[in-house]
TrEMBL record:
Pathway: Porphyrin-containing compound metabolism; siroheme biosynthesis; sirohydrochlorin from precorrin-2: step 1/1. Keywords: NAD, Oxidoreductase, Porphyrin biosynthesis. This is precorrin-2 dehydrogenase. It comes from Alicyclobacillus fastidiosus. It comes from the Bacteria. It catalyses: precorrin-2 + NAD(+) = sirohydrochlorin + NADH + 2 H(+). It is an enzyme of class 1 (oxidoreductase). The keyword Oxidoreductase applies. Its EC number is 1.3.1.76. Residues 136-158 form the Siroheme synthase central domain. PANTHER family: SIROHEME BIOSYNTHESIS PROTEIN MET8.
């Protein structure tokens, strides 16, 4: 039997984020930006049944195909402050710091929760790395400290679940022994 030795108080310098699963069916989610990050956020939103609007002059081919299928609404121009009006959630995912900051500010002024792709501390909510199988979802978060680590742990967990191995536990062990740099 393995003994986990992770000392949680040493590993984090702040409070934990509150874990929750959101029921977004029919709710407006505005994603600003049309690049790789915006595409990932939209891909994960699609399964939730949210009503998705993407605001961006340029978009990826995946976004284009969802727009062509009528699954995503596209506002094909640069962001304007009124774009966040009526949204349940906003995702600021442009490659311009000042624009992302303005989006967060505009959402905050309206009391709308905003995810800011380039500033973990400015996020009202963050997106975990998710493993889904048969409608069951497992979500991994580092409370924003290391998104790449969340992704690697999710991938290790997925492999474990798929072939009965113990990669996820081995990865956690490596972290707890202070040798997580190789992860
Ligand atoms: C706070 C948060 C806000 C949010 O986006 O929700 C955030 C923030 C930032 N990410 C950055 C970088 C990267 N993020 C990824 C990947 C993922 N990022 C995700 C979540 C989150 N990222 C939230 C915290 C989650 C948590 O840990 O609790 C995942 C898990 C979920 C998803 O996005 O769907 C998804 C993997 C899932 C999948 O693949 O399925 C990769 C790797 C890759 O892209 O392959 C890189 C490059 C490598 C690196 O730098 O680490 C930067 C620096 C940007 C810059 O400096 O340019 C910031 C800004 C900052 O840290 O301040
Ligand atoms: N949170 C996360 O998971 C990650 C965040 N990032 C950060 O996320 C941001 C976006 O990264 P990528 O998608 O890779 O960038 P990208 O360069 O692929 O895409 C940027 C998109 O923003 C759009 N855009 C630019 N100005 C705009 C404006 N004023 N209004 C509306 N849309 C505008 C562009 O048309 C483009 O579609 C970067 O700041 C990056 O540092 C990067 C990796 C992961």
């Amino acid at each position: 039997m393995y003994q986990l030795k992770v000392n949680a108080s040493e590993k984090r310098d702040t409070v934990l984020h509150y874990a929750a699963f959101l029921h977004l069916h029919g709710k407006l989610c505005v994603v600003v930006g049309g690049g790789v990050v915006a595409t990932r956020k939209v891909r994960n939103l699609l399964a939730s049944g949210a009503s998705i609007t993407v605001v961006s002059p340029e978009i990826t081919s995946d976004l284009q195909s969802w727009i062509s299928d009528g699954r995503v609404h596209h506002v094909a121009r640069a962001y304007q402050a009124t774009d966040v009006t009526g949204a349940a959630l906003v995702f600021a995912a442009t490659n311009h710091r000042a624009v992302n900051e303005a989006i967060a500010h505009d959402a905050d002024a309206l009391g709308i929760w905003c995810n800011v792709a380039d500033d973990a501390k400015a996020c009202d909510f963050i997106v975990p790395a998710v493993y889904e199988q048969a409608g069951i979802q497992l979500a991994i978060s580092t409370s924003g400290h290391s998104p790449a680590l969340a992704k690697k742990l999710r991938d290790a967990l997925a492999k474990d679940l798929e072939d009965g191995g113990r990669r996820f536990y081995a990865a956690l062990e490596q972290l707890s022994s202070g040798d997580g740099t190789a992860l």
